[in-house]
Specification:
The protein is α+β, with helices and mostly antiparallel strands. Helices cover 24% and strands 36% of the residues. The protein has helices spanning 2-7, 9-28, 54-63, 80-86, 92-100, 102-105, 177-183, 188-197, 399-405, 416-441, and strands spanning 67-73, 115-121, 126-134, 140-149, 152-161, 163-172, 213-223, 226-240, 243-250, 265-267, 272-276, 293-297, 302-306, 309-312, 318-320, 325-333, 337-343, 348-358, 365-366, 371-375, 385-392, 395-397, 408-410.
Length: 442
């Protein structure tokens, strides 16, 4: 700029003047008039800055102790030696302490996958070791802390409350629901809840289509900022074959005319309960081996009507009753193997066959969702699965059709104003989740 000014003083001066004039006119329109800059007082401040000797700076840097922070997850074959080595900790004393300390050993107890946080000095010696894990109580978690105390170490187990935060997720079905939820990084527990919510509206066995999509708002229970477990699904939308199904969790206050306190549950955004008289499935969402149709019987080697639905699942998977009722039979019976029959209202009856274990007895009252046994391969079965039948006055019916047709209950009238306000908020949340999913796809 200086050289240009010397070479073309008039041209540059004219340009600057024009620039200042233009700027002045623009500024005049948006700010009040101010004194001329030439009239403002000018004050000079001079300060002598001395550079520190280089050696002093090097000595200070040498005396500074660095802290190193690292994170990793436990593996099924881990020992404390292998775990600390993977975390770049070179501290035999720390490994020895953790092998002998009952509290510290909990870090490698149970299932693998615990997130480990360590703090070390610049000599790779351990300063602090911590990890967290869930408990049976879904409101608190356990925290293990191992810290250096001079030449030895101390350990302690702490109990602390979770912090619940809402998270958004969305996905599109390409091959299967689980593949889509994996792609969306949606925890399996949340995927199961979503399938359960809409089980009476959507046949997840046969009705999913490529291009179906979902949006979910759910609770993440965090321990020191780390998502440790999932809470309840707060709201969800599932678009199946172009039809949108929406639901939200709502807890009405007060009690009904009989004095029974209202229970929370999932409702469509227009106020209808998603809880019906019958569940759509006697198992939580699983892979299905065959639907309600004719099939070639693998044992009898002939075509016969398959009057029910086979749910393929590992031996021991809990089997649950789809509705309230009374056990009318529990034991062994011909090709059914170990089987449970349950009588429901209005001439309805359900059958649960090939069980490896029976948990109920004849005459026992059972409630919807209660575990009545476990999946097996007893009787005429080629592999572990649950054979399920739904009969109405002795006639076999498609279980999914019955579940869809069973009655539902609306939001209590007194709670409707609050519900409507919340439904507006939920609708916006689901739109935000959908927008996020579209942005990610693009």
């Amino acid at each position: 700029m200086a050289s240009s000014l010397h070479r073309h003083p008039k041209r540059v001066s004219s340009g600057i003047a024009a620039l200042l004039l233009g700027t002045g006119v623009t500024a005049f329109g948006v700010v009040p008039l101010a004194p001329d800059a030439a009239d403002l007082p000018v004050r000079q401040v001079l300060e002598v800055v001395q550079t520190l000797p280089v050696q002093t700076q090097l000595d200070a840097l040498a005396d500074h102790r660095f802290k190193l922070f690292r994170t990793d997850s436990t593996r099924s074959n881990d020992t404390f030696d292998t775990l600390l080595k993977r975390l770049n900790i070179n501290d035999p004393a720390a490994a020895a302490f953790m092998r002998s300390d009952a509290n510290a050993r909990l870090a490698l107890a149970g299932r693998a996958g615990k997130t480990i946080h360590v703090e070390a000095d610049d000599a790779q010696a351990l300063s602090k070791f911590s990890t967290r894990w869930p408990t049976d109580d879904d409101t608190v978690f356990k925290r293990l802390v191992v810290e250096r105390a001079g030449t030895t170490f101390t350990s302690r187990i702490e109990t602390a409350p979770y912090v619940a935060n809402a998270r958004l997720a969305s996905g599109v079905i390409q091959t299967s629901l689980y593949a889509a939820t994996d792609e969306a990084r949606l925890p399996d527990a949340v995927a199961i809840q979503v399938a359960e919510m809409f089980s009476s509206e959507i046949d997840f066995r046969r009705a999913l289509r490529k291009g179906d999509r979902f949006n979910v708002v759910y609770e993440a229970l965090e321990a020191d900022g780390e998502p440790l477990r999932t809470g309840r699904v707060l709201s969800a939308e599932f678009v199946n074959a172009g039809k949108a199904h929406q639901a939200m969790w709502f807890q009405p206050t007060g009690q009904d005319a009989q004095g029974v306190v209202y229970k929370g549950g999932y409702y469509s955004l227009d106020g209808k309960s998603l809880r019906r008289a019958y569940l759509g499935s006697p198992l939580e969402f699983t892979r299905i081996s065959s639907g309600f149709s004719m099939r070639f019987h693998p044992i009898l080697q002939k075509w016969r009507a398959h009057l029910g639905t086979d749910f393929a699942a590992p031996t021991g998977t809990p089997a649950r009753t789809v509705g309230d009722g009374v056990v009318s039979f529990a034991g062994g019976q011909n090709g059914y193997g170990n089987v449970v029959f349950i009588k429901h209202r209005n001439g309805h009856e359900t059958v649960y066959a090939h069980l490896s274990k029976i948990n109920v007895r004849v005459g026992q009252s059972v409630s919807q969702g209660q575990t009545i046994g476990a999946v097996g391969s007893t009787g005429w079965a080629t592999g572990p699965h649950l054979h399920f039948e739904f009969r109405v006055n002795g006639v076999h019916q498609d279980p999914m059709t019955i579940a869809r047709q069973s009655e539902t209950v609306p939001v209590p009238l007194a709670a409707l104003p609050v519900f409507k306000q919340l439904a507006v908020v939920v609708s916006r949340q689901l739109q935000a989740a959908a927008t996020m999913g579209q942005t990610r796809a693009e």
